[in-house]
Each structure stands twice: as C-alpha cells, then as structure tokens.
Amino acid sequence: MAEITVRVNGTEHSLIVDTRLSLLDLLRERLGLTGSKKGCDHGQCGACTVLIDGRRSNACLALAVTCDGLDVTTVEGLGDGDGGLHPLQAAFIEHDAFQCGYCTPGQLCSAAGMLTEPGPSAVTEDLMEDPPLTPAEIRERMSGNLCRCGAYVNIVTAIEGVRR
C-alpha cells in the first residue's frame, strides 16, 4: 500500500492505494469518475485515455502510484468548470462524431492532448518542422483511439473544426 496525492480535474485527493492499482480503476472505482471507459484493459483501444500533466495516457496502463503529485484530467474535467462544454465536446456534437459513444471520452481526451503536442508524426514529410494538422496528421495522431462504430471521418472533421 502507498499514500498518494493526485489532483483530478482540479480537485486534490489524498488516498491510500494498492501499488498494483491502475489509474483507470482508481478513477472509476475509488473516485466515481466513470467517463473513462475500460475497453481492452491492455492499452490497445484508447477508450481510457486521460491527460496526465497535459499529456495523453492510457489510464489502464498507468499505475495510480506513478501519478502521485500529478494533475489528471478526465473527460469530466475537460469543460470550462461551469458546466460548459469544451470546444471539442461541442464540435463532436455538431459534427456527429460518435455513434454508440463508448470510445468518445477517450477520443475527446486524446484530441485535447493532441492539439497541444508539437512535433512531427509518422506521416510528416519534413521532420524538421512542426507540421500543420492536416486530416492525415490528425488521423495518424489519433490512431491509438479505436472506434468500433467507424465514426472516424466525423471525428477528424470535428477536430479540424476546433484546431482552426
């Protein structure tokens, strides 16, 4: 067991946790934040994606003890704090970027993190420059988030609308 302090969506939590507890299980079972979904529990689908200190992470693979002293943002914390939607959430609604919605929390957190990440990707032609977020760049950077319904076209369109 270990004592940790983690700030989740702006609220600090001091907890005693099993050192084997995943961040996803901490969020869902201990803190009642069920927006992040348990899809594959192997880091392959992205349904559990959250932001840890602003960077995308699969919560099913992150141990809760490694988040001691860090800031975690889940889909519940993306909005403006007054109940307003994050621009990505509004864009997903506007562009019908989801069907069943199971992957949507992870897609939203991943997109929010991706929009702030500089640098090239596997499809960037000039590796010395920070590329514009073309549809190909967005698809590549979001490739860790799977959608069983196939809403990818609308997801890319929604993200394009926010990045402008």
Automatic annotation (TrEMBL):
Residues 2-78 form the 2Fe-2S ferredoxin-type domain. SUPFAM superfamilies: 2Fe-2S ferredoxin-like, CO dehydrogenase ISP C-domain like. The keyword Iron applies. Keywords: Iron, Metal-binding, Oxidoreductase. Pfam families: Fer2 (PF00111), Fer2_2 (PF01799). Coiled coil: none annotated. The keyword rRNA processing does not apply. CDD domains: fer2 (cd00207). This is 2Fe-2S iron-sulfur cluster binding domain-containing protein. The lineage of its organism: Bacteria, Bacillati, Actinomycetota, Actinomycetes, Streptosporangiales.
